[in-house]
Amino acid sequence: MNDFSIVLRSLRVRAFSTGIVLTLVAISAGLLLAILSLRTAGERAFERGTGNAHLLVSKDGSPLVSVLNGLFYANPPKAPIDGAKLAELRASFPWAMFVPTAIGDSYRTFPVVATVPEFFTKFEPVLGEKWVFAEGRAFEKNFEIVLGSAVARETGLRLGAKIVLTHGSGKSREGVDEHAHEHREYEFNVVGILEPTGAPHDRALFTDLESSWILHAHDRFERAGTHKTLTVADLADEDRLVTGVLMRLPSRDPMSAPPALVSQYDRLRRDGTITVALPANEVQRLFTIVASIDVLFVAMAAATLVSSAVAILLSMINSMGERRRQVAILRVLGAGRARIFWLVLTESTVVGLVGATAGVALCAVVLFAATAWMRNAHGIVIAPELDARSAILVALGTTTLAALAGVVPSILAYRTSVARNLRPIG
Amino acid sequence: MDEPTSSSTRKSEAAHLAALDIDSLGFRYDSGFELRLPALQLSPGEEMLLVGRSGCGKSTLLQLIAGLLDPSAGHIRIGGTDVHALRGAARDRFRGRSIGMVFQTFHLLQGFTARENVLIALLMSHVAKAEWQVRAESLLRSLGIDRLDALAEELSIGQQQRVAIARALACRPTLVLADEPTASLDPENALNAVRVLRDACREQGAALLVVSHDPSLEQHFVRRERLDALTKPQSAHKGAAS
Predict the structure, then answer these.
(1) Interface of A with B (CB under 8 A)
(2) What is the ipTM of this complex?
(3) Which of A49, A66, A98, B47 could potentially form a cystine with A277 if both were Cys, beta carbons 3.0 to 4.6 Å apart?
(4) Euclidean distance between CA atoms B84 and B23, whole angstroms
(5) Do A6 and B120 touch (CB under 8 A)?
(6) Which pairs with CB-CB distance under 8 Å and at least 24 residues apart come from B8-14?
(7) Strand order from edge to edge, sheet including B20-28
(8) Residue A112's closest CA among A300, A243, A227, A230?
(9) Closest Cα partner for A45 from A195, A198, A148?
(10) Residue A37 belongs to what H/E stretch?
(11) Nearest to A241, CA basis, from A81, A76, A73
C-alpha cells in the first residue's frame, strides 16, 4: 500500500466515469497523433515517390494531376501522347533519361505500367535509391512482367506465374470501370519481383510498351471484325501511344536540379499540347494546398484534446461529493493538506498518462487502417510509421493538460473541511 | 508562596502524563454557538463516556481534540503535546500517530478492502513499513474479521464497525475518540461494539473517550460525564456541532 495505490484504487472505485474519461483522452490523443504522424508520413511518402525525374510530360489537365497519375498511379491518364510527339520530345534535348510510360491496364486493380527497359536502369523510384530485384530480373522481351513488392505480397504470385491483364484499370474514381475487360489471349510471364521502395511503385506491375500496345491493338482489330493473336508487326502508329514521359537532364550532382532545368521547363511549357510538371515542385505545391486544411485538422484534434482535459476536470468535480468524504477520512488518518493535493493531482495526471498511452496504441491502429485505406482507395503508399517525436510530444502534452485539469479539484480537495465532511452519512 | 508553585508543578506533571488534558477551552462558531470547557483530563488507558443531548457540542469537542478545529482559547494536550501549537502537516502527522477516531457511520474508505482500510492508517503514520501487514492482519483477526480482503462495503455493519476500530488502533494511539459509535447499530450490536472497542483500547493501552447521546451506554463506563455539566454553552445552536 502506498499513495499511488490509493490513487489507482480511487480511480477504480469510479470505474465507469474513469473509463469514459480515459476513452475520451485516448481518442483525442490518438487522433492528434494520427494526424501529425499521417502528415509527416504523407509528406515523406510523396517526397519519396517523385523519384529522380526532373520533368514529367503528359497530356493530363494540370501538372499536379499529371504527377498524381503518372507517378502515384492515382488514376489512369485520360489523354495519350502519340509517337510523333514522343519522337519530337526525345529529339528536343540531350536527355540523361527519357522514359516513356503507358498507364491504363491493370491486374486485380493494381496498375500496370508499360515502359522501356531504361525504367529499371535510369529511373530511380526514390532519389538516390536504385531498383533492387528481390527475385528474377527486368523484362527483356514481350509479355514479360515485373511485380512491385506489395503486388507480389498481396497476390502471392511467384516467378514463372502466368497472368492475364485487364485492359482498363478495373476501377475508376467513380467506381467500377465499365469498359474494363481481360485479355485472356495474351498471358504475361512473371520474371521479376522488386524489393520494397516505400513508394507507390510497390503496388504496380511493370511490362514493356510493345506488349501493352498489342493489347490495345487487339481491341482495334476486334472492332474491325478481325480475330487473331497479334504480334509487334501488327502494330500501327495509332497503337504506339504513351501516357507520360519521365525525363532527366544531365547533372553533375545527382541529388540536385541542374541549372538548365528551368530553361527546359519553360521551353516545354510553351508547347500548349502537353502538360509539363516538375514533380518535386508539384508535391510541394500539393502540401501548400493542403496545409491550411492540415492546420485546421490539427487544430480540431488539439481542441478535442483540450475538451478531454475539460472532461477530466468535470468528472473530478462531479465526484467531489464522494471525494470530500474520502479526503476527510485521509486527513483524520494523518494525511496533510499537501499530500491530499498531490494525491488528487496524481489521479488526474495518471488519467492523462494512461489515456495518452492508450491514445498512442489507438493511433497505431488508426495509422494502419488509414494506410490500408490510402493504398486501396487512392493507390498512395504511406509507410505506417508512428512518429516517435510526435508520440512523446502528444503524450507529454496530454499528461500536462490532464495535470492542469486536476489543479482545481486538487485545490478543492486541499481546502476540504474535515469537520463538515465527517458528519454522519445516510 | 510555595504552595501555588508546587500545585502548579504537579498540575503540569499531571498534564504531561495525561492522555488528554483540556485546559480553559473556548470555541465559537460564526453562527454564535459557543463551547466552553474549563477542564477535562483523561489518564493513559482510562475510559470515559461523555453524554449529552444532540447539538450540545459533543462532536465539536472531539474535532477540537483531534485538531480538526482551532479553539478560540485554551489548550488541548495529548500525551503532553499541545495539539494546537502544532501547525499544518505537523498537526496532521501528530493526529495520525496519536489519535484514533471511530465514527457513527464508520467512514471506511469505499472500494478498499478491510485490510487496506487499516493499512492506509499505517501509511499515514510513523510505523515502519515492514510491520504494516502483520499489524493490520493481527488487529483485524483479533477483532474477529476473517475476510481481510473483502471490500469494506461487502462487510456487515458489525464487521465494518470492527474494521473502523482496528483502523483507529492501528498506529497504537495515545487516545481513541469515538463519536456516537453505537448510533447506527441495534441494541445487541451496540452492546457488542462497545465491548469490542473497550477491549481493543485496553489491549493497546489507549485511553478512550466516547461521546454519545445514548444513555444506555452509561452502565458500561465507570467514568461518565454529562457535557452540559462540564461546559458553559452561551447559546445552543441546533445542528451546529453534531
Answers:
(1) 1-3, 6, 9-10, 12-13, 322, 325-326, 328-339, 418-419, 422-426
(2) 0.84
(3) A66
(4) 12
(5) yes
(6) B14/B41
(7) B34-42, B20-28, B73-78, B81-82
(8) A243
(9) A198
(10) helix A15-49
(11) A81
Q: For residue A52, give the amino acid letter.
A: N
**Is A334–B121 a contact, with Cβ atoms under 8 angstroms apart?**
yes
Count Cβ neighbours within 10 Å for each residue of B87-100 and write b for 16 or more, e otherwise. eeeebbbbbbbbbb
CB contact under 8 A, B112 and A9: yes
**Contact between chains at B180 and A424 (C-beta distance less than 8 A):** yes
Average pLDDT of the residues in A142-149: 95
Closest CA in chain B for residue A10: B111
The pLDDT assigned to A378 comes to 57
Q: Does B135 touch chain A (CB under 8 A)?
A: no
Residue by residue, DSSP assigns A188-202 as EEEEEEEPP-SSGGG
pLDDT band, very low/low/confident/very high, at B241 (cuts 50, 70, 90):
very low
Query: pTM for this structure?
Result: 0.68
Contacts of B153 in chain A (CB under 8 A): none
- Cα A400 to Cα A413: distance, rounded to the nearest angstrom: 19
Indicate if the pLDDT at residue A371 is higher than 80: no
Task: Write the DSSP assignment of A310-373 as a string of letters.
Answer: HHHHHHHHHTHHHHHHHHHHHHHTT--HHHHHHHHHHHHHHHHHHHHHHHHHHHHHHHHHHHHH
Nearest by CB to B107, which of A1, A9, A422? A422
Burial class (CB in 10 A: 0-12, 13-18, 19+), A8: middle
Chain B residue at shortest CA distance from A15:
B111
> How far is it, in rounded angstroms, from Cα A76 to Cα A246?
16
- Report d(CA B206, CA B217) in Å as an integer: 19
Cβ distance of B123 and A338 shorter than 8 Å = no
Q: Closest approach of chain B CAs to the CA of A362, in angstroms?
A: 30
Chain A neighbors of B112, CB-CB under 8 A: 9
**B97 at interface of A, judged by CB pairs closer than 8 A:** yes
Kindly list the residues from chain A whose CB atom is less than 8 angstroms away from the CB atom of residue B104.
424
Residue A141 to residue A134: CA distance in whole angstroms: 20
Ranges of H-type helices in A111-156: 118-121, 149-155
- CA B88 vs CA A334, B27, B73, B161, B174: distances in Å: 11, 19, 19, 29, 20
pLDDT tens digit sequence for A68-111: 999 888 888 888 999 999 999 999 999 999 999 999 999 998 99
C-beta neighbour count of A223 within 10 angstroms = 8
Report the C-alpha gap between A376 and B21 in whole angstroms: 82
Residue A177 has what pLDDT? 56
Cβ–Cβ below 8 Å for B123 and A3: yes
A321 Cα to chain B: minimum distance (Å): 13
Closest CA to A186 of A238, A126, A250, A231: A231
Helices assigned H by DSSP within A71-117: 83-91
A4-60 per-position pLDDT tens digit = 999 998 898 889 989 999 999 999 898 888 888 777 777 777 777 788 999 999 999
Chains A, B: CB pairs < 8 Å: 82
Q: How far is A10 from chain B (nearest CA, A)?
A: 7
Domain definitions of chain A by residue range: 3-45+291-421, 55-277
